[in-house]
Structure prediction request, 169 residues.
Amino acid sequence: MTVMLYLMRHGIAEDASRDGSDAERALTDEGIRKTTQVAEGLRALDLQLDAIISSPLRRAQETARIAAKVLAPDREVELTPLLAGGSAAAAIASGLRLPRRAAQVLLVGHQPGLGELASHLLTGSAHRIPLPFKKAGVAAIEVDGLPAKSAGILHWFAPPALLRAASQK
Prediction:
C-alpha cells in the first residue's frame, strides 16, 4: 500500500524562549497566523489525513496542532523524538511507525532534517537533493511504506506563500 507523506516544517518561531531552551521556542503571533493560512491552503487541496506525527519541540507541536485543527479535528497529534532533529534520515525512515492502513500522513519537523528526509525518501541518500523547506513549507512525497523499498515520488513541494494564497481561493 502506498502512503502519501506530507512533510511540513514548523512555522515562524521565537528567536529564544523565555527560559532560553531551544525546545520551548513557541510560534510567534505571525507564525500562528501564517501557519493557520498554510493549513487552510492544504485544506483547499482536500488533504484527508489519517495521522499527524510531530517533533516534540514546542514550535513543531504547535504547528501540528494548528494543522490538526484545520485539517483533521478528530485526529490526535502523535509525538516522536525522531523528528526533533539530530536523527539521520535513514533512521527516521526506518524508525517511524505509521498507523495501519494510513494513506495520508503529515510529518511536522525541522530543517535540515526534513530536507534530508525528503532527499532520502526520493533518492536513498540524505544529501543528494535535500529540499530547502521554508518555515511552514510542505512537500508531498508518495512512498511504498516505511522504510520504503523503492524511491518515493515527489508530487509537489510548496513554499508557504503559495499555500497561503491557495487559502484565499
User: Anything to note?
Assistant: Residues 29-44 form the longest helix (16 residues). The mean pLDDT is 94. The radius of gyration is 15 Å. The first strand starts at residue 3 and ends at 9.
